[in-house]
Amino acid sequence: MKRIVIGASLAFTVLLAGCLPQVERAEEEVIVVEETEIEEEQEFIVTPSIDTPDSYYRNMLSGDGEYFRSQARGVVADAMQNRVDLDQFELGLMEIASNRFGQDEFYFREGSYISGEVINSWLRRYDPDNENNVNGLNPQLAGGESMEDQMRNAPLMISHIMEHNYFSGNEEDGVNLGGVVIGIGVRSVYYFQTETEDGRLNFFEQAIDSAEAEEYARNAAGIMLERLRQREGLEEVPITFALYREEPRGSIIPGSFISLAEVGQGQNEISGWDAINEDNLIFPSGAAREAQPALSDSFTVFRDEIETFFGRTVGVVGKGRYQNDTLSELQIELNLQSHGKAEIIALTQFIRGRLDSTFQVNAPVNVYVESINGPEALITSMPDQEPFVHVYGN
């Protein structure tokens, strides 16, 4: 008889308790699920929930507590133009999933149905004459007098594909795959290179029209759905596709999700797409001042007060994330050069006293104080809550 044992790991809670605000220990629970009389016993551990301002999925671990890593882990990292896009892409997929797969009912696990080899084959250019490229989802090379022309006329549109799995389980029904979320990264700039006859490399970049890239990715999602339905275990499961438009190389703000499509249980076609209204702004900047003048003024006041405190110019940068034209999070980063521990403590106290009065917003405000030695302090302000403050030790 196959028994799937799902237990909560208290050690995981202790690990997180040192670095997250308002963390509470979760009681250990064990769910024993009996399935077939043929297969061997299988055991999973489910990490406990943690009480934090942000909501996170509980993770499914193997019976010995090892984290399940996707076979494709690393493929997306290699394709990403910058780290901020990679982080936002992955975390944003979980946020999108939470609207369909509730965090109280489902457990998260990295994708296990699409291997890295398969994703690589999908990210290649389509070429019917090359057996390695017959499954490519990027455009086939177009006509042109030179290789540069051919590549410019057919830019690579799709940059990344990421799979997330969501499971649910109890004693009566067993542990089952409840849904899959597929993230599709879409380029905003196409970077490419050509080689001359004498071996020299020429580097180029070309902006990609956002509407054209989105339409191309939507069509590619339809092909992915057809292929996924042919995989064992995915014939009936609900699948969500989310398109993410990445920022140009070197950007300090991440890109954003632009649209999603939900495919119901057993459905074999994408019936429609819903637009996602998401944006990121840098403070200070002309774009932020034009789009959010009030918050821009507040940020300027905050920056000036910090510089008055130090008596010199300090690197202060804000990153505002907007969803449906409403601020959902503001991150502020302070980068210091030389300092003493007493100075850090005083600065943290100063910021704690100024945060709520300066930024009167209904969204989390997180201030990260860093130096050449690493993180120095964290101040988090949540709406209608006392700010959380932590000063890192030596």
From TrEMBL:
Gene3D superfamilies: sex pheromone staph- cam373 precursor domain
Signal peptide: 1-17
A Pfam family assignment: CamS
Keyword Signal: yes
Keywords in alphabetical order: Signal
Superkingdom of origin: Bacteria
Record's protein name: CamS family sex pheromone protein
Organism in which the protein naturally occurs: Paenalkalicoccus suaedae
Taxon lineage: Bacteria, Bacillati, Bacillota, Bacilli, Bacillales
